[in-house]
Design goal:
By secondary structure, the chain is mainly α. The chain is built from 2 helices and no strands. The chain has one domain. Helix 1 packs antiparallel against helix 2. It is rod-shaped, with a radius of gyration of 42 Å.
Length: about 150
């Protein structure tokens, strides 16, 4: 059970790290886009049109790469979340099963103690009855010996 619990914690940590890396990538892409947009506005269109176009293409490619990284991070986060949920459910089921087994064990112990008590009482009654029979047989033998 503790192995499943530690697996849940690892998956939860992995989920948090995936979300964090996605957030960082997203913020980085937004900041980069903002910086390039400001730089682009500062250029004069006539002199730097081809340079701006090239930079825009580069920025667009970087932005698409960052967006893809965010999507991958989100997918990892979703998978980790699903795994954590599945493991939490398995842990709950194992704990329920463990509780049922413990209850059955206690019931079995109670039954065993009850049966042992009944056996002890039966043995005591058998010994008592055996003594009475021996005494009767001794009386019968004594009457035959006197006769």
């Amino acid at each position: 059970m503790s192995g499943m619990s530690s697996a849940c914690w690892r998956l939860s940590d992995h989920l948090d790290m995936s979300r964090w890396s996605g957030d960082v990538a997203n913020k980085s892409a937004r900041k980069l886009r903002g910086n390039w947009s400001q730089w682009n506005l500062s250029l004069t269109p006539s002199r730097h049109q081809s340079a701006v176009q090239c930079l825009c293409e580069c920025v667009q490619a970087e932005l698409e790469e960052q967006v893809n990284m965010v999507k991958v991070a989100e997918d990892h986060a979703k998978k980790a979340s699903a795994d954590a949920s599945r493991l939490a459910e398995e842990l709950r089921q194992e704990q329920d099963h463990s509780t049922q087994i413990e209850k059955a064990r206690r019931t079995a112990e109670t039954i065993a103690k009850d049966l042992q008590t009944r056996l002890d009482e039966a043995e005591a009654a058998a010994m008592q009855g055996g003594r009475k029979i021996v005494q009767k047989m001794e009386q019968v033998c004594a009457t035959f010996s006197t006769v």
